[in-house]
Every structure is written in structure tokens, then in C-alpha cells.
Amino acid sequence: MGDRMKEFLLAFLGSFAGAVLFNIERYNLLWAGLCGGIAWTTYEILIHSSGRAVYATFISAIFVGLFSEFMARRAKTPAYIFSIPGMYPLVPGIMAFDTIYLLVFGKMEDGINKGIETAATAGAIAFGIMLSSTGYQLIERILYEIFKNKAKK
């Protein structure tokens, strides 16, 4: 099995397990896990092509938000049911550890730089999900108004 497939499965299982811990309904567990797998695969592809973690995280978070909004409509459930477990693989835990490690061992400049990157990555997750969810809802509302007006004619 290829490395990407293994990573996809691990991200899927991590998101799936997180969804189980949050007591999400059984019929939504598969989709919550799939959201995490998609997020991690997108991140890996982008990090290898661009080398920029914040950019890769931001685009991956947009995918999480779009997938969550789409599945929320299909499953008739709130989008956070999918977005919260879906973003687990993107959380910069090792970056936060590295920040503290560098600061504790006196490498202040490196620690501050890593801390800024960690904060930027966390912000990219929040902004990416917010942007995609808001954009999805805006487009959905515009399309609703267009089709509602066509139906009146």
C-alpha cells in the first residue's frame, strides 16, 4: 500500500475516532472520517508541491469547510459535525511542541519563529473553514433567490 494511502487511512481513523468521542451519530461517522482523510491528503499534496505549511493548511481547511457544508445539507445535520473531526489532522500539535521545546532549550529566535508559524497555521484553519462555510452559504442563498424568482415567472 502506498504512503499516501496509509496516511489517508490514518487521518481517516483519527477523524473517525474523534467523531466517536464526540458521540456523533453512527451514520455520520464515515463522513466525518472521510473529511479528515480528504483534509490530510490535500495538505500532503500541497505541502510537497509548495513547501509552505500555512498555505497548505489554509487550502485544506477550505476543503474541510466545503465538504462539511455539503454533507450537512445531505445529512440534515450541522456542519460542525463534520468540520471539527475533519480538521483534527491539520491541527499543528507537533509545531506547538517544537515551539515550546526550542524556547525551553534557549533557542529563542527559532522558538519565536516556530511559534509565529504555529499561530499562523492555527489561524489558517479557522479562517479557511470560516471563509468556505460563509462562501458556500452565500452562493446557496444567491442560487435560491435566482431559482425562486424564475419559479415566480
Task: Work out the count of structural domains.
Answer: 1
- How much β-strand is present in the residues? under 5%
N-to-C CA distance? 56 Å
Largest sheet: none
Radius of gyration: 18 Å
Helix/strand class: mainly alpha
- Number of H/I helices: 6
Low-confidence stretches: none
Give the tally of β-strands: 0
Average pLDDT confidence is 92
Bulk shape: globular
Sketch the topology as an H/E string, one letter per element: HHHHHH
Query: Can you give the helix content as a percent range?
Result: over 70%
Description:
This is Threonine/Serine exporter ThrE domain-containing protein. It holds the Pfam family ThrE_2. It comes from Caloramator mitchellensis. The chain contains 6 helices and no strands. The longest helix is centred in the last third of the chain and has 45 residues, at 108-152. The chain has one domain (3-152). It has 153 residues and is mostly helical.
Secondary-structure map with pairings?
Layout: H1 3-21, H2 26-50, H3 53-75, H4 80-86, H5 93-104, H6 108-152
Helix pairs in contact: 1-2, 1-4, 2-3, 2-4, 3-4, 3-6, 5-6
Quick overview of this protein structure:
By secondary structure, this protein is an all-alpha fold. It is 86% helix and 0% strand. The protein has one domain (3-152).
Keywords for this entry:
0% strand; single chain; 86% helix; 153 residues; 6 helices; mainly alpha
